[in-house]
């Protein structure tokens, strides 16, 4: 599996934004060898990077360094990424569009950040959404939590503050697909 440079950059920028430049430097120094090679070079937003070394391991190091190993760190990175992705004109649009419309767009956006794989809205009504992530060849709970965080961030931008996003099925735990439940 591969991840777009935009997500790799969001990981790096999150640390500086949330914890400052000195913490970012310490985090970069803590990265495993192959991950550090990626972050030591210019990260190009439109390039594809290895899923594990460019995305999962850097996220794990953030969770370990700043969140006591908690997956909450992955969710916060995902939320930050949504805020960065949906800013400017997109943010203004997201605030007036329906939640279901924005969530359908979220499913369509998935393939621009990750390959292979696809995300679809499996079902929806006024109180619930069910997302399925299919056709992926690798996963990790931190990845799945980052997706949940992104959904959470998009919902917050839509002024939907009262919601819950949780993982019901997980490829990382042995299921055949990722299922994310959203209670609105």
Notes on the protein architecture:
The chain folds into two domains: 76 residues; 87 residues, Alpha-Beta Complex (H-NOX domain). It has a four-stranded antiparallel beta sheet with strand order 4-5-7-6, covered by helices on one side. Strands 2-1-3 form a three-stranded antiparallel beta sheet. The chain has eight helices and seven strands; from the N terminus they run E-H-H-H-E-H-H-H-H-E-E-E-H-E-E. A hairpin with a 3-residue loop joins strand 4 and strand 5. The two termini are 31 Å apart. The mean pLDDT is 93. The protein is an alpha+beta fold and 184 residues long.
Topology:
Layout: E1 2-4, H1 5-19, H2 21-30, H3 33-40, E2 48-50, H4 51-66, H5 72-85, H6 89-96, H7 99-113, E3 114-115, E4 118-124, E5 128-134, H8 141-157, E6 164-169, E7 178-183
Antiparallel strand pairs: 1-2, 1-3, 4-5, 5-7, 6-7
Helix pairs in contact: 1-2, 1-4, 1-5, 3-4, 4-5, 5-8
């Amino acid at each position: 599996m591969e991840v777009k440079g935009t997500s790799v950059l969001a990981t790096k920028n999150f640390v500086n934004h949330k914890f400052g430049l000195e913490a970012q430097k310490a985090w970069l120094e803590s990265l495993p060898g192959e991950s550090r090679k990626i972050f030591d070079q210019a990260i190009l937003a439109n390039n594809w990077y290895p899923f594990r070394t460019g995305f999962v391991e850097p996220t794990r190091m953030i969770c370990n360094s700043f969140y006591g190993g908690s997956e909450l760190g992955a969710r916060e990175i995902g939320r930050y990424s949504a805020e960065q992705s949906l800013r400017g004109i997109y943010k203004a649009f997201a605030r007036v569009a329906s939640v279901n419309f924005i969530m359908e767009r979220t499913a369509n956006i998935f393939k621009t950040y990750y390959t292979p794989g696809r995300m679809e809205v499996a079902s929806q009504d006024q109180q619930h959404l069910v997302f399925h992530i299919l056709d992926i060849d690798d996963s990790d709970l931190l990845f799945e939590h980052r997706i949940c965080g992104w959904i959470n961030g998009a919902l917050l931008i839509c002024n939907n503050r009262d919601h819950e996003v949780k993982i019901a099925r997980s490829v990382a735990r042995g299921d055949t697909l990722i299922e994310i439940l959203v209670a609105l």
